[in-house]
Amino acid sequence: MEDFFNWLGTLIGETLRWIVDLLVIFFSSLRGAVEGFIGGLSGAMGINPTLFSLLLLIVGVWMLYCALRALLARRLIATLVWAFLGLVVLSWLIGR
């Protein structure tokens, strides 16, 4: 009976170890992919790969998205305001 529980404990331990190793491989690959994406994006735009720069990039793109939505809703003044603000934020970010 003791051999059975020894075998069962070994099986559960090896299975858990296999799952942990698989998750470590997955998350390290994911980390590398995210780092590569952020490095490529910031390098192509000529910005620093800092959190502040990436947040400003997201805000600028969001403003341009709002301008597009306003254009599709035929709101000309809102389109011009959102597009101007988005372009100011992005040009300031890229020109920095």
Q: Please give the alpha-carbon distance between the first and last residues.
A: 72 Å
User: SSE string, helix = H, strand = E?
Assistant: HHH
Per DSSP E runs of 2 or more residues, the count of β-strands stands at 0
Global mean pLDDT: 90
Q: Which percent bin holds the helix content?
A: over 70%
Poorly predicted segments: none
Describe the main β-sheet briefly. none
Number of helices: 3
Structural class: mainly alpha
Could you tell me the strand content as a percent range? under 5%
Rg over C-alpha atoms, rounded to the nearest angstrom: 25 Å
Keywords: Membrane, Transmembrane, Transmembrane helix
Transmembrane segments: 15-34, 46-65, 77-95
Organism: Franzmannia qiaohouensis
Protein name: MFS transporter
